Amino acid sequence: MASAIQTASSEHTSLPGTAVKKVGRAWRRTTTVPDGRAVTPKLTIDVLVGIPKETSVFATYPLIIRGIRKRAEIETRERPELGEIKVAVQFLAPSAFHPEIDGLRVRRCKNGGKRGTLFIYPYEESAVEMVSQRIMTVSVLESYSRLGIDFVDTDDATAVSTLVGMLHASGHTRIGFVSWNYPIAGHWVSRRFGGYAEAITTRGLALQRDWVINVFDDRPRLSPDEVLAEAVRNVRENKVTAWVCAADHQAYHLIRGLKAAGLRVPEDCSVTGFDGVEPPAGLPRATSMRVPHEHIGSSALTRMVNRIIYPSSPQRKILVESQLVPGETISTPPQT
What is the pLDDT of residues 165-191, one digit of tens each? Predict the structure, then answer.
């Protein structure tokens, strides 16, 4: 298990056997230690990142964690009634997370403190459910609607629709959609595909299933290299002139592969991504949507604090808008 990284952070919940005092518009919760002193309970937020720490290429979680930490400092400074606040970050692949046998990750604080868990990226829903039944839980970049837990995410569908609109405005009518196959894909791929499908159909274009890779359950799941081969084949045989990729790391892999196959981007084929990460050396910047990951982390921390203070409040679904990153990978389609 990866070691925990601790820093300042914030959150709170009703504490059994504590006195509650209203201070202005804030709430101060106190408890009594054996020597009779009244102290404010400690808050600990476990942040579980659903990716091994060494898998860092194109990773966006550092910005999310930065947002969590910055917001934690603000909450600690501006809301002292929350008490001592700590954040423990763990990099843990979803396949390695077994809360039913690993109680450490859902442990409660000692001396009357409280805990909460922030999940970054998709985990198995059954594992998230088990944790959420014991302590306050907020999800980041994944929704678990059946569980009724709060989540903070980006407005995927609207963002992808914007990219499709740009391609169509440039003259593209044969536009495909690419995703990679993930052990636990979560809902982000389907939401981004949903934005693509809606944008295609509302523009009167045909939704060609053969131009959609790693989305439909009745189609074979392809590895990244197989995705590349299928994309190249569609460009050459079916005259697909543009690919909408579900993420930037997929887009840059595709751009590099198209180039190796003798196809120029964007002259022979346009490509869009999603996330707005920096391009690898030697590759053009992909036209993409930048996700405000730091702001998402900040919002998730605040949501956790409020969830713990008001545990009975309705579920919150927070969507943060992405920003267009004009790149170098969209051009008019080639003349045939």
Answer: 999 999 999 999 999 998 776 789 999
Token pair recorded at residue 111: 């001396």
DSSP-assigned letters across all residues of 78-92: H-GGG-SEEEEEEE-
d(CA 139, CA 194) in angstroms, rounded, equals 21
Domain segments of the chain as ranges: 5-153+292-319, 156-290
Q: How far apart are the C-alpha atoms of 245 and 230, rounded to whole Å?
A: 14
CB 303 within 8 A of CB 151: no
The dotted CATH code for 5-153+292-319 is 3.40.50.2300
CATH class of this structure's domain 156-290:
alpha beta
Could you check whether 5-153+292-319 and 156-290 share the same CATH topology?
yes
pTM of the shown model: 0.79
The average confidence (pLDDT) of the chain is 83
CB-count exposure of residue 136 (10 Å: 0-12, 13-18, 19+)? buried
For every residue of 248-279, DSSP letters joined together read HHHHHHHHHHHHHTT--TTTT-EEE-SB-PPP
Do you know the residue count of the chain?
Answer: 336
Residue with tokens 């990099």: 91
Q: What are phi and psi of 77, to 5 degrees?
A: -75, -40
